Amino acid sequence: MIKNNLMVNIILMSGAFLFGSTTVIQLLRMGFTTGVIICSIPPHILLVGTLPHGIFEFASYFYTSYYAIRIQPDMYEVYISGNEDKP
Questions:
Q1: Looking at the domain assignment, is residue 28 inside a domain?
Q2: Does the pTM of the predicted model rise above 0.85?
Q3: Helix, strand or coil, per DSSP, at residue 67
């Protein structure tokens, strides 16, 4: 389980180097999958099945996605435009 979560986080962070494309695609895919699962499983089974590890996984995915998207302007300034004097 840790190996799979680490792989997803690496894919999400790769979006920082690819202008956010992999991050946005992965977030859309996870959102669609989560929506389908929520609509197809009874609430009590959903709660018992996702609560133990779902809280940490979703928090990790969103935290990684935020930083993958957040560092893009800084990377653009340094690597594309060559301006390294950002305060």
A1: yes
A2: no
A3: helix
